[in-house]
Amino acid sequence: MDSPIFLIGAGFNVDANSQIRSREYRYPLTGDLLEPCFEITELPVGKSIEDLFQNSIEQREISPLQRLCDLVMGADYYFGGQFTNENENIENPYNQFLQKFRDSHFITFNYDSLLEILLFHKKRWKPDDGYGINVHTEIRPFELPKHSNNLVLHLHGSFCVNSVEVYFEKDRTSLIEWMKPLEKPQYVFDPHSITHRFSPYERIHSRSYRDPFKRVIAPIPDKAKNINCSSFVVAVYKKAIFLIKQCDTIVSIGYRFGEQDVSSYESILKALSGSNKSKRLIVISPDAKEIVSRIKKDYHFEIIPLELTFGGWASKGFRLP
Asked: Which pLDDT does position 171 carry in this prediction?
């Protein structure tokens, strides 16, 4: 079997919380966001957490998204450091996973940078090309490979990549600076509060700066419009579809294929089914059978459920059927 491509969902990170317990840092699931992001303990009747984020955006209230960003980047800094320190725990399932699948690429719906941090410290990834597109960086460390061996494609955007779509030009007569659109968007590496995890890379401070929480597709009910409006996301989707058409097997880990997220995953699964080659999707999740029964009618390839968490799959040696 060729190296599979992994499709990563929020459930992938949950086992990090149990590997190294911390009262302050953890990777949140959707159900964990209610109190830290909205300061309430129960959902309003008839509302979902995605509805609450949608309402906050419509009301121009940025604090819920800012808090989400802080939660995820805080976890990145903490767990990224714990998993890559000098006394690296060889029993850690994340390091074992990356060792097992050395030639695989990763497509993720998550905002976090855990995979990039781990791969960077293994000298198998760098931000210049590791996001699947060209990204401008401040320093190019000589000890890294010329090209990334593994790609991490963020289909909902990354807190660490700032899109630059305009430039400033000074009028020689009036000395007024005019903002003008670039013919082609540029992307710069700005890992903000987790820059230390990518040392000796540094932040690029652009005049077209966007806060990290503005660089991603917000967790709202309908993401389709925002996906098509983000040049970074459109470019990454294009790369992801290209890779999927070349592979035989996609393995999803901790991704629910939720009904609200059809616009996010539909083009990915259509790319898998659009080839003459025999292809398959392996779904690794505690509720894998329910997921498979729900989506299998829409796609014409083999879909195999494995009812396991990421940690449970790791304990079985990462075996695939």
From this structure: 66
Residue type at position 132? G
Beta bridge partners of 5: 250
Which residues constitute the domain of residue 298? 5-33+65-315
CB atoms within 10 A of CB 307: 16
Sequence-distant (≥ 6) Cβ neighbours of residue 10 within 8 angstroms: 27, 29, 30, 109, 110, 254, 255
Task: Taking residues 35-46, report their average pLDDT.
Answer: 94
Tens digit of pLDDT for each residue in 235-245? 999 999 999 99
The count of domains in the chain is 1
User: Is 284 inside any structural domain?
Assistant: yes
Task: Tell me, yes or no, whether 57 lies in a domain.
Answer: no
Residue 194 lies in a domain: yes
- Model pTM score: 0.93
Buried/exposed code over 232-266 (b: 16+ C-beta within 10 A; e: otherwise)? bbebbbebbbebbeebebbbbbbbbbeeebbebbe
Helix (H, G, I), strand (E, B) or coil at 291: helix
Long-range pairs, 112-115, Cβ under 8 A, ≥24: 112/13, 112/27, 112/72, 112/75, 112/76, 113/73, 113/76, 113/80, 113/158, 113/159, 113/160, 113/191, 113/194, 113/197, 114/13, 114/16, 114/27, 114/75, 114/76, 114/79, 114/80, 114/83, 115/8, 115/152
Is 59 domain-assigned?
no
**Is 302:274 a contact under the CB 8 Å cutoff?**
no
